Amino acid sequence: MNSTAWKKPSLDDPIQFIKGVGPKKALLLEKLQLTTIEDFLYFLPFRYEDRRQIKNISTLMPGEFATFMAEVLNASVIYMGRRKRVFEVIFQDETGTTRAKWFRFNETYMLGKFKTGEKIIVSGKPTANKRSGLEIVHPDTERVAGDATISLEIGKIVPVYHTTEGLHQKSMRSILNNVLDIYLPLVEEVIPEDILRRHKLLSRSDAFHQAHFPPSEGFTTKDLDAFKTPAQKRLIFEELFLIQTGLAFKKKHATEIKTGTAFKTRGNLIKRFVKLLPFQLTAAQKRVLAEIMEDLEKEKPMNRLIQGDVGSGKTIVALTALLTAVDNGTQSALMVPTEILAEQHYLNIRPYCEELGIEVALVTGTLKGKERKAIYQDIEEGKTRIIIGTHSLVQKEIQFEKLGLAVIDEQHRFGVLQREAIGKKGDQPHLLIMTATPIPRSLALTIYGDMDVSFLDEFPPGRQPITTNVYYEKYQDKAYALMDAEIKLGRQAFVVCPLIEESEVMDLKAVATVFESIQSQFPHLNACLIHGKLKKEERQEIMSRFLKNEIQVLVATTVIEVGIDIPNATVMIIEHAERFGLAQLHQLRGRVGRGKHASHCLLAAYFPISEEGKARMKAMQNSRDGFEIAEEDLKIRGPGDFMGTRQSGLPVLKIANLLRDIKILDVARKEAFALIDRDPNLENPATQPLKNTVHRLLGKHLPLMEII
Question: What is the pLDDT at residue 146?
């Protein structure tokens, strides 16, 4: 007797005790992250096969999936050399013959299964063999009892699942069928009745059943493969609706319980600052600043994300917000992911602060002894008004006199807890989050659904075009020749090497090799090497010399973020470009094209290159628009891996696809936020199943455990 007999069945039951599983298969299923009944219910087929029509052998076409019924004419093992053998079955019906082959098989089992004269249902995709005509490799087969048999496959639309070695499709279908037989009556509806009715959604249990084993009538495999059937759409809606409900709940809760400091905006300090700027703000900068100022004027703490392409002017927007906080008698902090990026922000911001008479400090992990103590004391006493630093800002030792605004740059490089920790340093400070990595709208609505979002979608005037080309191994001399030609015209160049994951030592060795090669090939050029192991003072000196054009070629690792503006730099060479993600490539490219000269991004790629790598190269060549590139990146990598999604705090989507299902996402979001407006705490008895499900599925991912 198995363990499920002793307790009421539940969707949390382990899959091991389902008929057809057992301990060995349970271990294989675990590789697919299938451990409970609920996991299995949400494990939808990734495609479907149409086996409703039984064809004649004479009508089979190469490359077209088909099902036919035939007799076994012959079955035997064919030896092809000493080690290679193939199991071959010749099938015949009244219209012709064809062959099926298996390269992995148990001889005794196969000879017992395919006996001469027996009728077999065969399903698969024929291929053309020049010698023997049409053949099918590793088809699905089913023995016919009389003229027909009871089956999960014959005469039906058949689900096809992702599997792992040792797990076959027949086994997966059988397990799913057993799961549905026992547990489908236990599936509780989680979407409120009025929403189901309004959007004509199937019940949850019907949706699960039809998604796994579609009805034979009503739609095609094309509809199923595109996830356009009512059952699939219902489950997509549910997944997105649950997430959006969690985000709506979080936003509503934050709005109601938090009271911060309302700022007066556009004060004297801001007016003086604007006069110092040697350029006019873009229309996009003005629009985003207006949105920020509107937030800052409210007691409810601002919670806003700024999305801006590389070079769209986020730093000036951030500094205006930081100064507004100072103008209101509070401190402000800017937190960035790396020391060198912190240093570069500090170097950019300090001249303005000095002119305005405002104390600004740089806080990183390299601060030691008396200097560290003095800086920390000035922050605690309120002498320092603007603090720029890394994650060091969230240390217990740092105490602010009164933190009014926290700005987080390149937020995807921080975990959820770090982002929350900076907010706890003050009395409900306003929060402004920035990213130079554009995020597709669908993903932004999912990851940052509890935030207000602003878009910096305009470049400052005068930005020059950047020509992007790929140079494969044998053509890389051309890339460096172009670099040399540009430098002879008085320009400068970046050469960036990828991070080698094995070790930091190897990383430094790799970049040192590139540096030595440049010195050897171009002895007339003044090249310099910069990386994260150098002391802060050394890095600052190198960047200062590069800015002054005393250094012509800067060779760097990706441990650093080269965020400083070098208007004279017109060449960016990215070594081993195939190893970089699209977002990273786009960010690096944005370091050139900032002056009055046309610029070049040269992608040096080395074989072997994956299909994904080739797709990234093509996307970089075809577009300069960060949001277009982000969409392409999402297509290539999927939402789970895109730009830190896994550390965003949200679970990985099991059914929904944020590119394919943007329309459903919009509807689900609208319904979720409207529901939370009507029932902020989900107290209505009809919403209890929803509340319990959101808590169970999202409580650990979003900070909801204590509030829902």
Answer: 54
Q: How many CA atoms lie within 13 A of 379 on its CB side?
A: 24
Q: Tell me the C-alpha distance between 364 and 184, whole Å.
A: 55
Collapsed DSSP state (helix, strand, coil) of residue 280: coil
Which residues of the chain fall short of a pLDDT of 70? Answer: 1-7, 145-150, 254-258, 411-419, 499-509, 559-564, 638-651, 700-708
Q: Integer distance in angstroms from the first to the last C-alpha of the chain?
A: 39
d(CA 653, CA 630): 18
Question: According to the model, what pLDDT value does residue 671 have?
Answer: 97
Contact by Cβ (8 Å): 525, 552: yes
d(CA 181, CA 455): 50
- Rounded to two decimals, the pTM is 0.69
Length of the chain in terms of residues written: 708
User: How far is Cα 444 from Cα 129, in angstroms, rounded to an integer?
Assistant: 50
Helix axes 536-547, 339-356, angle to 10 degrees: 70
Residue 665, phi-psi category: left (phi > 0), alpha (psi -120 to 50), beta (remainder): alpha
Q: How many angstroms separate the CA atoms of 699 and 246, rounded? A: 8
Please report, as a single letter, which amino acid is at residue 535: K
Instruction: Give the separation between CA 268 and CA 280, rounded to whole angstroms.
Output: 19
Phi then psi dihedrals of residue 51, to 5 deg: -115, 25
Contact 434, 308 (CB under 8 A): yes
Angstrom CA distances, 243 to 34, 191, 232, 307, 646, stand at 21, 12, 17, 22, 14
What residue type is assigned to position 546 of the chain?
A: F
- What are the tokens at 495? 């050469």
Residue with the two structure tokens 């990215």: 574
Predicted local confidence at residue 595, as pLDDT: 85
Q: How far is CA 287 from CA 317, 458, 508, 627, in A?
A: 10, 11, 43, 19
CB-based burial of residue 550 (10 Å sphere; 0-12 exposed, 13-18 middle, 19+ buried)? exposed
Cα(281)–Cα(279) distance, integer angstroms = 7
Cβ-based neighbours of 225, under 8 Å, separated by 6 or more: 47, 48
Residue 708, pLDDT score: 45
Peptide bond into 639 cis (omega under 30): no
- Give the count of beta carbons closer than 10 Å to the beta carbon of residue 88: 18
Q: Which residues contact 482 (CB under 8 A, 6 or more apart)?
A: 571, 600, 602
Number of other CB atoms surrounding residue 500 within 10 Å: 18
Which burial class, exposed, middle or buried, applies to 297 when counting CB atoms under 10 A from its CB (0-12, 13-18, 19+)?
middle
Give DSSP secondary structure letters for 28-61: HHHHTT--BHHHHHT---SEEEE-SSEEPGGG--
Compute CA distances 455 → 289, 305, 306, 439, whole Å: 11, 8, 6, 10
Interatomic CA distance for residues 498 and 603, integer angstroms: 12
Report yes or no: 541 and 527 within 8 Å, Cβ to Cβ: no
According to DSSP, the residues that pair with 71 across neighbouring strands are: 92, 119
Q: What are phi and psi of 606, to 5 degrees?
A: -120, 140
Q: Domains of the chain by range and CATH?
A: 53-155 (2.40.50.140), 268-297+313-435 (3.40.50.300), 466-623 (3.40.50.300)
| 490 token code pair | 């008085």
